[in-house]
Design goal:
The chain is mostly helical. The chain has a domain of 25 residues. Helices cover 60% and strands 0% of the residues. The protein contains one helix and no strands.
């Protein structure tokens, strides 16, 4: 990895792996949130005769 001053430093493998796992968990969490919001919107419109506007 290179710092903002141009110095090259090594990054330990355990740090890279933990960052990878953290990013994967965040992505999974974001997808879960999107599914929750979509399902909540569908439930809110059920039986009302209204339709949701797609974006």
């Amino acid at each position: 990895m290179t710092t903002n001053t141009g110095e090259t430093v090594s990054v330990p493998k355990f740090y890279r792996k933990s960052q990878f796992n953290l990013a994967r968990k965040r992505k999974h969490s974001a997808i879960s949130s999107q599914h929750f919001l979509r399902n909540a919107a569908q439930t809110a419109f059920k039986g009302t005769g209204l339709t949701k506007v797609s974006s």
